[in-house]
């Protein structure tokens, strides 16, 4: 480790993005007349710039082993930046109409993105926590962004309190790990656990706490309770954001933490991940059935999908990690698309969120109905849409790793899940039409169309994405 | 080439009248199919004459390739030998006559008739494919084709429930037999590596001692194959046990009964025995089974025929009985005799059916003989041809049946085995009964007091020429076919005539032996026939009250015969009702309860668990935090326990 010096260049994208964020903040404060559109555009620009830096940036370790820039972090960072940019883009009209059109909104998303990028690069429990908290704090504020709205404030508060509890668990776990092993560095921890038999009980208890803290962020059972309430209460663009980039970051962090420092203890934590994964898939499938609010439905859907993604981690193999990465990519795109459609649900300027509001959409707005149909079928995992391939690769990894139970339960819960996704299609195509929605903002059409194209064409264009995920997974197993 | 035209012309007729019948109208459809049949009949006759007198060499007419998969090869090809040519000539001729007759018979039908003619032609094509098949797959194609056409034609009046039931019954019973036939074909392929006839026949000697192990016993493969093929033949040829469909098949229009259920299709089983003679000759036990079943059928069907009152059913049982005779001949190794009887029977049985059709036509659809009587003055022509047909059937001298039936009994007598003797006894007894029920039919229908209702009687008229001319032609056949073909088929020149298309094993010289039977044996059938006629005269003309007295005195016997030995009731109790019960159970228990219940139950389970799953989601932050901590504790405990 002595060779590792500052090498701050590996954190260049994060540094640039953080500086940009602060600059936009200053600009916003300095301006006499608030101009959220400018701030949003600048933020998207900053995200794009960071994206360029991520892709072209140098690889290697930096900050004395606190951060690493590798194929894994690059893959996820790009996803995070895309997710963040999509969220800003989709927020414009909504925020304007809901009177929460402020320049702080994009800035908070930028800061959250910085935190997430740190998360996926962290190779030390300390930097891990740093990134996680930066992201979380920004999202707590975002969740309560519509501060005059009781539900939004409640959502922010709930998320904050429970998030603090999770952070507490995580910190306690970190301290246990540190106390029993004397290190917080991933590489050194990995070496310390090379012989699982000699690992002390305190250490693995610490590991379970760390797992619990991270499980909260990916919203899997039993740490999922916040999800439906926050999804429903938060302003829809914030929900869009929470449903996309942070999921990617937290799952990436979980992957790196479980595979790199705790990789040798696979046999110990595998069973836990299997349990959590099964519980999430089952709850995600069952919980959504009775929902009438589409955002709440998406929350349960997210719980279920994170359960599916965990199948790959439970496999504990390179193929499994690759499956998770592909799953994250596919899931992020299709859920962003689904939220774009949800954002288009508005009548006379007021957002509507009930599934019943979609009734007869096929006759009032066929294009939007088609988009939603694509996303719903994809979320249900029906070929040839991208959602199928996401599931396919994790199931494949599970079967290859001998985890038949997971794969079978995954398939069964997909069947149940298909029911509520396809119910939405049925409502759109077969129910008596409700009043038509307002005219769509072009940003929504563009984002929805692009994500739908990706979802439909994934079969044809999957090659580069899959090889990138392959590289990323290899980097983790290095 | 001419041979191929004979086979395929009916197909053309069927397709044109079937697919375009609606467009071109009934008249044109009838004309087309008849012209195609006439063409086929001419070509069939020419091909036959060419082979027998013209010096054409037997061979195979290749048509196209069909199956060619690995070692399994089955091309479309027409086998051109005496056996096939005889059948082609007979089928096309009889079919043509029946096509023509149908124009008159179906004239008053309420439906457009193009469908009927299309089916008839389709049947003829399938039958021709059957008899000209060069491999077992093609034979089976024809076999199933005639089955299909038979199904369609029995159920032709599809708005009559009884016709639909009869069609289904015919199809299902045949299907049972077909299963054995298919297994027989499969075993043949398994043993011989081919289903092409010439390959099989050539390889028979090298498989004489092959055996299959079935149910722990060793059986000679050739015996097994022979028995399986015979069971298939039993279905098509309505032999005892699998005969139940044939009487019911009389629900179809009478020309159908004449063509399919008397002259041609039902003889397919006999043809199969002759066609497979090289295999059957190597299966003596199977042959004995053939004799016993055939003899039993001949006697059984004749007894039932004596008590039936439906004019067509009497003839139907007569057909059953005559087929039994043919199997006796085939079983004792005299395939040539079987085919001879097949040909003569085709003429006189078609004649009888068409004649009865003419009676029914005259009686405005009435089929019950108890409501007829005294018709001979009103329809003398029909009366005359029915006499001819009955004389031929009863086997009185000069008429066709005399030569063929006589030959069968002589063959059975001279074959010598116990089974053959049983066949002989049954055959003689059946000859007596045959004459009895034939004249019972004649007397009940044409003599005595008329028992018909007045308005029916007023309508009675002789059939139009389009019907009577075919009857005349068939009458000629019924009179002269026995006399004319006897020498050719079974006379001393038979080896030259058959030219190896039928094989008699080395030790099988039935055909020579039957020439030397005592003269008393030769005259026995005639005597029995005359006795039968006398008895019928006594019972239905001289003492018309006698039948009733007998029926009352021997009531159990009478009922037993009237109810056809209770075969239908037996099958109903053994197969049909348990089958329905099983099906009902599978429907109500397996399908409605289990198959439907599982998904419905799972669905309601999912909905209910959904309600339970979200119950915890109270919105209270304390509950959420508590859940998280409980979850953590649970994970920790599991972890520490499993570790």
Primary descriptors:
heterodimer, A: 478 residues, mainly alpha, two-stranded antiparallel ribbon, 19 helices, 4 strands, 2% strand, globular, B: 643 residues, two-stranded antiparallel sheet, 27 helices
Can you put this structure into words, describing what you see?
The complex is a heterodimer of chains A (478) and B (643). Chain A is mostly helical and 478 residues long. Helix content of chain A is 75%, strand content 2%. The radius of gyration of chain A is 21 Å and the shape is globular. The two termini of chain A are 16 Å apart. Chain B is mainly alpha-helical. In chain B, 74% of the residues lie in helices and 4% in strands. In chain B, β3 and β4 (217-220) form a beta hairpin. In chain B, α2 (82-105) packs antiparallel against α3, α2 runs parallel beside α14 and α14 (335-362) runs antiparallel to α15. The radius of gyration of chain B is 30 Å and the shape is globular. The interface between A and B is medium-sized, with 38 and 28 residues.
Question: Which blocks of ≥5 consecutive residues of chain B have pLDDT under 50?
Answer: none
Helix count, DSSP H or I runs of 4 or more residues of chain A: 19
Question: Approximately how much beta-strand content do the residues of chain B carry?
Answer: under 5%
* H and E string of chain A: HHEEHHHHHHHHHHHHEEHHHHH
How many beta-strand segments of chain A? 4
Chain oligomer state: heterodimer
Radius of gyration of chain B: 30 Å
Please report the total strand number of chain B as a whole number: 4
Strand content of chain A: under 5%
């Amino acid at each position: 480790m002595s060779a590792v010096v500052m090498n701050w260049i590996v954190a260049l994208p994060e540094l640039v993005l953080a500086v940009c964020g602060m600059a936009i903040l200053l600009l916003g404060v300095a301006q006499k007349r608030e101009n959220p559109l400018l701030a949003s555009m600048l933020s998207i620009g900053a995200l794009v710039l960071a994206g360029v830096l991520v892709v072209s940036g140098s690889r290697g370790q930096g900050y004395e082993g606190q951060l690493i820039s590798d194929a894994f972090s690059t893959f996820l960072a790009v996803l995070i930046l895309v997710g963040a940019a999509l969220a800003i883009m989709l927020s414009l009209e909504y925020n304007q109409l809901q009177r929460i059109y402020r320049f702080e909104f994009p800035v908070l998303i930028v800061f959250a993105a910085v935190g997430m990028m740190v998360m996926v690069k962290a190779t030390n429990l300390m930097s891990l926590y740093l990134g996680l908290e930066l992201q979380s704090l920004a999202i707590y504020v975002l969740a309560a962004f519509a501060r005059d709205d009781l539900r939004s404030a409640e959502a922010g508060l709930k998320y904050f309190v429970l998030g603090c509890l999770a952070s507490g668990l995580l910190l306690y776990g970190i301290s246990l790990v540190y106390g029993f092993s004397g290190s917080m560095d991933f590489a050194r921890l990995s070496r310390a656990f090379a012989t699982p038999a000699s690992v002390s009980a305190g250490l693995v208890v610490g590991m379970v706490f760390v797992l619990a803290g991270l499980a909260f962020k990916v919203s899997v059972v039993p740490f999922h309770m916040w999800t439906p309430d926050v999804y429903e209460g938060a302003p829809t663009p914030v929900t869009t954001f929470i449903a996309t980039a942070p999921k990617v970051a937290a799952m990436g962090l979980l992957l790196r933490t479980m595979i790199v420092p705790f990789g040798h203890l696979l046999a110990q934590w595998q069973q836990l991940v299997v349990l959590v994964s099964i519980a999430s898939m089952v709850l995600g499938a069952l919980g959504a059935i009775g929902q009438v609010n589409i955002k709440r439905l998406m929350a349960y859907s997210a719980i279920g999908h994170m359960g599916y993604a965990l199948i790959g981690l439970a496999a504990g193999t390179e193929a499994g990690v690759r499956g998770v990465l592909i799953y994250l990519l596919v899931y992020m795109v299709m859920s962003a698309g689904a939220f774009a459609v949800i954002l288009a649900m508005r009548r006379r300027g007021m957002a509507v969120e009930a599934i019943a509001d979609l009734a007869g959409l096929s006759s009032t707005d066929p294009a939007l109905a088609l988009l939603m149909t694509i996303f719903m079928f994809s979320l249900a995992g029906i070929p040839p849409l991208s959602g199928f391939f996401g599931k396919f690769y994790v199931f494949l990894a599970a079967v290859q790793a001998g985890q038949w139970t997971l794969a079978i339960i995954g398939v069964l819960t997909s069947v149940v899940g298909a029911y509520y996704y396809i119910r939405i299609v049925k409502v759109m195509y077969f129910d008596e039409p409700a009043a038509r929605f307002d005219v769509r903002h072009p940003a929504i059409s563009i984002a929805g169309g692009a994500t739908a194209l990706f979802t439909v064409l994934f079969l044809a264009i999957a090659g580069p994405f899959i090889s990138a995920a392959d590289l990323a997974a290899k980097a983790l197993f290095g | 080439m001419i041979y191929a035209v004979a086979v395929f012309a009916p197909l053309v007729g069927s397709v044109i009248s079937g697919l375009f019948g609606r467009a071109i109208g009934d008249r044109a459809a009838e004309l087309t199919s008849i012209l195609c049949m006439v063409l086929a009949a001419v070509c069939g006759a020419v091909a036959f004459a060419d082979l027998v007198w013209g010096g054409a060499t037997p061979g195979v007419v290749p048509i196209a390739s069909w199956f060619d998969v690995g070692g399994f090869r089955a091309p479309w090809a027409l086998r051109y030998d005496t056996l096939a040519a005889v059948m082609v000539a007979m089928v096309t001729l009889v079919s043509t006559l029946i096509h023509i007759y149908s124009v008159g018979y179906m004239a008053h039908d309420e439906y457009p008739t193009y469908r009927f003619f299309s089916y008839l032609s389709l049947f003829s094509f399938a039958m021709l494919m059957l008899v000209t098949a060069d491999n077992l797959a093609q034979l089976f194609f024809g076999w199933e084709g005639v089955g299909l056409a038979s199904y369609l034609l029995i159920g032709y009046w599809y708005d009559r429930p009884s016709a639909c039931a009869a069609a289904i019954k015919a199809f299902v019973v045949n299907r049972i037999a077909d299963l054995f036939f298919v297994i027989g074909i499969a075993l043949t392929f398994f043993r011989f590596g081919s289903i092409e006839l010439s390959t099989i026949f050539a390889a028979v000697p090298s498989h004489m001692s092959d055996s299959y192990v079935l149910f722990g016993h060793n059986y000679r493969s050739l015996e097994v194959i022979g028995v399986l093929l015979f069971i298939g033949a039993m279905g098509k040829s309505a032999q005892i046990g699998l005969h139940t469909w044939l009487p019911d098949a009389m629900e179809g229009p009478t020309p159908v009964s004449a063509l399919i259920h008397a002259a041609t299709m039902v003889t397919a089983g006999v043809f199969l025995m002759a066609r497979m003679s090289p295999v059957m000759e190597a299966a003596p036990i199977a042959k004995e089974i053939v004799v016993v079943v055939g003899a039993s059928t001949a006697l059984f069907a004749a007894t039932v025929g004596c008590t039936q009152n439906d004019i067509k059913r009497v003839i139907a049982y007569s057909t059953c009985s005559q087929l039994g005779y043919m199997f006796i001949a085939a079983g004792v190794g005299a395939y040539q005799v079987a085919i001879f009887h097949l040909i003569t029977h085709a003429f006189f049985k078609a004649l009888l059916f068409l004649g009865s059709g003419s009676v029914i036509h005259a009686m405005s659809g009435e089929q019950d003989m108890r409501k007829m009587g005294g018709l001979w003055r009103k329809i003398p022509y029909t009366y005359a041809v029915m006499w001819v047909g009955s004389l031929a059937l009863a086997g009185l001298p000069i008429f066709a049946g005399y030569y063929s039936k006589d030959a069968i009994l002589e063959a059975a007598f001279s074959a010598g085995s116990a089974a053959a003797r049983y066949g002989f006894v049954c055959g003689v007894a059946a000859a007596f009964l045959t004459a009895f029920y034939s004249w019972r039919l004649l007397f009940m229908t044409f003599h005595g007091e008329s028992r018909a209702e007045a308005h029916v009687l007023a309508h009675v008229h002789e059939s139009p020429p389009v019907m009577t001319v075919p009857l005349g032609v068939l009458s000629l056949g019924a009179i002269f076919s026995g006399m004319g073909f006897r020498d050719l088929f079974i006379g001393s020149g038979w080896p030259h005539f058959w030219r190896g298309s039928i094989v008699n094993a080395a030790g099988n010289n039935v055909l020579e032996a039957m020439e030397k039977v005592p003269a008393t044996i030769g005259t026995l059938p005639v005597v029995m026939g005359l006795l039968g006629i006398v008895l019928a005269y006594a019972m239905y003309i001289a003492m018309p009250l006698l039948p009733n007295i007998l029926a009352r005195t021997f009531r159990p016997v009478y009922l037993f015969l009237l109810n056809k030995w209770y075969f239908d009731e037996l099958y109903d109790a053994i197969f049909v009702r348990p089958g329905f019960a099983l099906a009902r159970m599978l429907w109500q228990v397996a399908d409605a309860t289990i198959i439907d219940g599982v998904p419905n139950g799972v669905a309601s389970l999912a909905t209910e668990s959904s309600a339970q799953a979200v119950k915890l989601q109270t919105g209270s932050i304390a509950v959420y935090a508590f859940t998280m901590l409980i979850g953590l504790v649970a994970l920790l405990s599991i972890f520490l326990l499993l570790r």
